[in-house]
Structure formats: C-alpha cells, structure tokens
Specification:
The complex is a heterodimer of chains A (about 280) and B (about 160). Chain A has about 280 residues and is mainly alpha-helical. Chain A is built from 8 helices and 1 strand, in the order αβααααααα. Chain A has helices at about 10-15, 40-60, 70-90, 90-115, 120-135, 150-185, 195-235, 240-280, and one strand at about 30. In chain A, α2 packs across α3 (about 70-90) and α3 (about 70-90) packs across α4. Chain A starts with 8 loop residues before the first helix and ends with a helix. The relative contact order of chain A is 0.13. Chain B has 2 helices and 1 strand; from the N terminus they run βαα. The chains are: A mainly alpha (about 280), B mainly alpha (about 160). The interface of A and B includes residues 30, 103, 151 and 163 of A. β1 of chain A pairs parallel with β1 (about 5) of chain B.
C-alpha cells in the first residue's frame, strides 16, 4: 500500500476498490469505452479458461464405465444443469447451446465468486511486490481479484444473455412475429395500446438485464467490501481487532460459501429462464 | 462502479467459453451418460432374465425329479409284478409236474393191477379146470370145453 506511512482506513478501502486498468489510475468518467480493467479481465479469463479446462478434462476422459470421483462430480453438475435446462427451455435445438452455456456460466461464476474467499490482501500484496520490483509506485499497484465484483463483468454476461434472448426471439418467432409481439403484448393489439406495449417490453428487457447483472455484482461487491472492512478490524493491531477479525472473518467466510454458490446458481437459472421466455409467445 | 470496455470483452469471452463447452465438453459427457444409462438398463434386464431363467430351471428340476421318482416306481412295480409272475409260473409248473407224476404212477399201477388180475383169472380158470378134472376124474377136452372155459372166464371178469 503506502511506501512510508500506513494508509488511513479510507485510503485502504479506496485502494482496494480501485481497478488496475490501462490508464494506470482510477477511471474518471462513469462510462469510458477506452478504458479496460486489466485485473478483472485477467482473472475472468484465467478462471474461464480454468473452467473449460476442468470440464474438458472430465469430458475427454468420460467413459460409460464406472466413473471416478472427478468424473462423477462433473457428471453430477452436467446432469443438474441438463435437468434444469430441460425443464425451462422447451426446445431441444436451443438447449444444445444454452445448456452447455449455463454449465459454463455456473462453474465460471462460482470460481470468480470464490476469489472472494482468498484472503483479501494476499494477491494485492503480491502484486504490489511485483509492481514495485518492476519499478512502479506501490501506491498505484491496484488489483481487484474478484471479477464478479466488477459491474462490467456481470453486466457483460447479462448483456450476453440479452443478446441470446434477442437472437432466440427472432429465431423462434421470426422477425415479424417478434416485432408484432413487441407492440401487441402484454396489453393487446389495439393500435392505441402499441406505445404502452412497446414501452413495457423495453422496460422488461432492460430490467431483466440490469437486475441480472446487478444482483450478482451487488452480492459480490458487498461481500468483498465486508471482507475489506473485517481486514481493517485486524489492521488496528489490538486484541479486540484481532479477535474481531478472526471471528467475524470466519463467520462471514463460511456464510459467503453459501452466497457464492447461490449467486452462481441464480445467475445460471436466470440465464435459462430468460432464454426460455424468449421461446414463449405472450 | 464505472462502465468501460471490460463489458464488451466479457461479452465476447462469455460466448467463446459457451461455444467451447457446447463443442468439446457437453457432447462427450452426455454421450457417456446415455451409454451408461443404457448399459445399466441392459444389465438390469439381463439380471431379470437370469432370475426368470433360474426360476424356470428350478421348476424343470422339480419336474424331472418327479418324473424320475415316478418312473422308478413304475420300474419297481413292473419288477415286482414280474417276480410274482415268475413265482406263480414256477408254482403252477411244479403242480403240473407233480400231477403228471401222480397220474403216470396211477396209470402204471392200474396196468399192473390189470395184468395181475388177468393172470389171476387165468390161474383161477386153470385151477377150476384142474379142480373139475379132478372132480370128474376124467380128462376134459380143453378144446371141447373151450366155450365153457371162456364163459367162465367172462364171468370171473
């Protein structure tokens, strides 16, 4: 963190919540398409590749004989996702892509969320060391290791789901059919109702996508922030702070195991639900 | 909480990973699962069939045992019958032989008696003639009195 003096609590929190990006300092505008968060991208990509590697390992060794523990575990996941997909998306053709995507999303988001359980200072500290030894100022060695606590990542995935929904809307209902639905549902096909229908539909799409991404982001961001605050407790270097860090950290970490799994599952289920809705006519 | 190009990159990664899973992960695992399911189904069917076969075989064994017992009974019955018949035959044969022997003996005895009677008769006739000769003190011509003698002989019979 700081070279000489220990940072204040607020400096510590802000430092922890600043992304490493291509500009080298915190992003100034709320929306800036020239900036990319290198830390989020690195961890997201690494964990994504790890996800498909794990799944691919199981798939490449899959036999119809007696499965080992690893194969059995992956098969359990596959079967769970396949069952859910079958119940929600009523098109075998669409399931060919949507079910594997849901599986990937589930494992990937779980791993991204799991980064929250790694001690909050561990990887940023290591990065500081690397950054400093490369001649950088450790005060600017930003590193956020939980990709799903980055709104860009979660909204990126929910926008991916939105694109998928639009694609299946057009594919299943035809472009004309979909446009007809945009203007005639949910209230009716009377011309007077068209603007209201269309407005409702747009609101629905936006709300679905934003809430889909925001839900995961909010949970993970709050979880990360809480870990940072608990770490601050330990940072007071008092008996109370140490005990508080230990107890609160343990309890929150155990509770967080539930949250990270649940959020990954919810994101996967909503992906299936939204794609399933794209197949249904109003 | 800022939006930037990370979002776009994440969309791209999202679809690439989904595509990879669809192409290289999902099909082999599903194939293995389906194959195993059909293997298990086959195994269960084979087990059921084996059980049915076993029951059938047991039934057959019982049936065969019953048949064997039955035929053994038949054989014993036949043997007993045959033995009884043999004994019966032997007995009747023996009876027949004894009867025949008795008959022969009786026949022989009758013939002997007849012969003895005959002889006796002749002797009696001669005695009578001799007696009469003595009584009459004269020779009776045997030829002249043959009829008389024959009559006498007849009467003695």
């Amino acid at each position: 963190m700081a070279t000489g003096n220990a940072p204040t609590a607020s400096e510590y929190v802000v430092h922890h919540l600043t992304h490493l990006n291509n500009t080298g300092h915190a992003q100034e505008n709320v929306v800036d398409w020239t900036v990319i968060n290198l830390d989020s991208m690195f961890w997201s990509l690494s964990l994504g590749v790890l996800t498909v590697f794990i799944l691919w390992r199981a798939a490449s060794r899959a036999t119809s004989g007696v499965p080992g523990r690893f194969q059995g575990f992956v098969e359990l996941l596959v079967e769970m996702v396949a069952d859910q997909a079958k119940g929600i998306v009523h098109s075998a053709e669409s399931r060919k892509f949507v079910a594997p995507l849901a599986l990937t999303v589930f494992v990937w988001i779980f791993l991204m969320n799991f980064m929250d359980l790694i001690p909050v200072d561990l990887i940023p500290r290591i990065w500081e060391g690397i950054y400093a030894s490369a001649g950088g100022d450790p005060a600017h060695a930003y590193q956020r290791v939980v990709p799903s606590a980055d709104l860009n990542i979660t909204l990126g995935m929910s926008c991916g789901v939105l694109l998928l929904c639009l694609y299946y809307n057009v594919k299943i209902k035809g472009f004309g059919g979909w446009v007809h639905e945009l203007f005639s549902a949910p209230f009716g096909s009377h011309p007077v109702l068209w603007p209201f229908n269309f407005a409702m539909q747009i609101i629905e799409f936006v709300a679905k996508t934003v809430s889909h991404g925001m839900r995961l982001f909010g949970n993970m961001y709050a979880g990360e922030l809480l870990f940072i605050l608990i770490a601050l407790l330990g940072g007071t270097a008092s008996v109370f702070g140490f005990a508080g860090h230990l107890i609160a950290g343990t309890i929150w970490a155990i509770f967080h195991i539930l949250i990270i799994t649940l959020q990954a599952f919810i994101f996967m289920m909503l992906t299936l639900v939204y794609v399933g809705q794209a197949h249904e006519s109003h | 909480m800022n939006l930037n190009a990370t979002l776009i990159a994440q969309i791209v990664v999202f679809f690439i990973l989904g595509w990879f899973t669809m192409k290289f992960v999902w099909p082999p695992i599903m194939k293995a699962l389906d194959e195993r399911a059909s293997k298990i189904a086959d195994g269960l069917a084979a087990a059921d069939k084996a059980k049915a076969d076993l029951a059938l075989a047991e039934k057959k064994v019982v049936e065969e045992l019953r048949k064997a017992r039955e035929s053994a009974g038949d054989v014993r019955g036949a043997a007993e019958k045959q033995a009884a018949k043999l004994i019966e035959d032997a007995r009747s044969e023996a009876t027949r032989i004894v009867a025949k022997a008795r008959e022969d003996a009786e026949g022989e005895a009758a013939v002997a008696a007849q012969r003895a009677k005959e002889e006796l008769r002749n002797q009696v006739a001669q005695l009578a003639v001799a007696g009469a000769e003595r009584i009459l003190r004269r020779e009776i011509d045997a030829k002249v009195h043959a009829d008389l003698l024959a009559n006498l002989k007849q009467e003695l019979q």
